[in-house]
Every structure is written in C-alpha cells, then in structure tokens.
Specification:
Elements: H1 6-18, H2 23-32, H3 50-56, H4 68-74, H5 82-93, H6 95-101, E1 104-108, H7 115-128, E2 133-137, H8 138-149, H9 153-165, E3 168-172, H10 182-197, E4 202-206, H11 210-216, H12 219-228, E5 229-233
Parallel strand pairs: 1-4, 1-5, 2-3, 3-4
Helix pairs in contact: 9-10, 10-12
Length: about 240
C-alpha cells in the first residue's frame, strides 16, 4: 500500500469543494462531511419576566414597581415616623445577616402609613440576594388553609411546609385572621413558633398594637415576636 500523500489529499478536497455551487449544494456536502462547516440551530433566547416572578412569590400587581428607590422618589415620609424609618433602614442594611440569624421585623401602625410598601421593598431586596420569599395577606392565608384542609391532604401539607420552610415569609395584615377560626389561629401560631425555632425570619405588618397582640395570641407567640423581632412603629393618618 502506497503511503497517503496528505498534501495531495487536501488539494483534491479543496478542488472538489470549489466546484460546489449554491447554498443547497454546500448544505448537502456539509451533511456528508460533518467535520466541514457544521451547521447549528439558531440559539433560543429565553426572556424572564420579572412581573411573573413577583406574582409567583405573592406580590400583588399594585406593588410590582415598588422598591426603596421608588419610595425615595415618590413616597411621603412624615417626621413623626423618623424613628420607624431608622429601624427599617438598619434592618435593610443588615438584611443578609438578619435573614441568616432568623431576625424578623414587625411594621406596626394604622392603615395607610406605608407598612406594606416598605415590607414589599424589603422582600425584593431579599430576592436580589437570592433568597426564596413568599408574601401572603392573613385573610388570604385564612382562606387557603381552610380550603386546602377540606380537600387533598397532600396539597395542604405541601402548602403548610412551604410556609414553614421558605427562607423569608411576609405576613401582611397580621391579626386580620383573628377570631375567624380558632383552628387557623392555632396554625398561624404553630408556623411562627416553628420558624422561630428554625431561625427563619418573618416580616409582619399589622394595624394592631403590641397590647392587642399580647392579649389575643398565646404567650409563646408574643414572647418570640417581642424578643427576636425588630419593631418599627408608624403613626399618623393614612397616606392613601
């Protein structure tokens, strides 16, 4: 067998390919000779919709644009709430450490004083840190737990485990579920205590005073909320 003349083989290949004319001929040749000018499918571009993400964690549409930058540009900051804003600022600046240590935050005050807007802004900051989050209003929590408890037990347990395990839980309008169902109240207390023991923080917004919370929830819940949570107390009339 004669030795292969590599140079001659390459020249022969070049001569053969130079005779190919038209895009179709080149495509057919490429199929037969996969090492030559491979053809790839067009890349698929996947776009993420940030609003879809917000919806998935329970943020209402009204708050999709809400964050601290928006509040700085458009928000109202009454002087009587300067101390509350200082508490929020301190909590936000140390958010990563607070989340890791299980330290939560209570935003307490009358309706319309900006508690939910601030809570949502904190939630988005946690999302930027890559933390799993969930926001739910207490009336909705009431409806969800009662509905799921009457249906598929697997679905109910899955929902309850999510409440217990999500890295950051925002409970909006805490206390609104009270007296609607003793069973739900006991479940809420159980979730709070379990998250406390697991060092998983909660952000609470509530229209009720500390005295009301002490009177209407068990001492175990009250002690945990008072001892391990920063508290920002808002005053004044509604901004709405």
């Amino acid at each position: 067998m004669e030795p292969l003349n590599v140079t001659a083989a390459i020249e022969a290949l070049r001569e053969k390919t130079s005779k190919l004319t038209g895009k179709q001929n080149m495509k057919e040749y490429t199929v037969k000779n996969e090492f030559f000018y491979p053809i790839y499918d067009k890349p698929v571009v996947i776009q993420t919709n940030v609003n879809t993400t917000y919806a998935a964690v329970g943020i209402p549409k009204r708050y999709y644009d809400m964050d601290f930058e928006w509040l700085r540009k458009h928000g109202s900051f009454p002087k009587e709430n300067a101390e509350a804003y200082a508490v929020v600022k301190e909590y936000s600046h140390n958010l990563k450490e607070n989340l890791e240590s299980g330290k939560g935050l209570i935003l307490r005050g009358p309706a319309g004083t900006g508690k939910t807007s601030i809570a949502v802004s904190l939630l988005k900051e946690a999302m930027r840190l890559g933390k799993g989050c969930l926001m739910i209003s207490m009336p909705n929590l009431l409806d969800n737990m009662l509905t799921l408890s009457k249906g598929d037990n697997v679905a109910y347990l899955s929902y309850e485990q999510k409440l217990r395990n999500i890295p950051l839980l925002l409970l909006d309008d805490f206390g609104a579920e009270y007296s609607k169902s003793d069973w739900v109240v006991s479940k809420v207390e159980s979730v709070i205590i379990d998250r406390y023991n697991r060092m998983k923080p909660i952000i609470l917004t509530t229209n009720y005073s500390e005295t009301w919370t002490e009177k209407n929830y068990s001492q175990r819940v009250y002690d945990r909320l008072r001892g391990e949570y920063a508290v920002a107390i808002f005053n004044g009339a509604s901004h709405r």
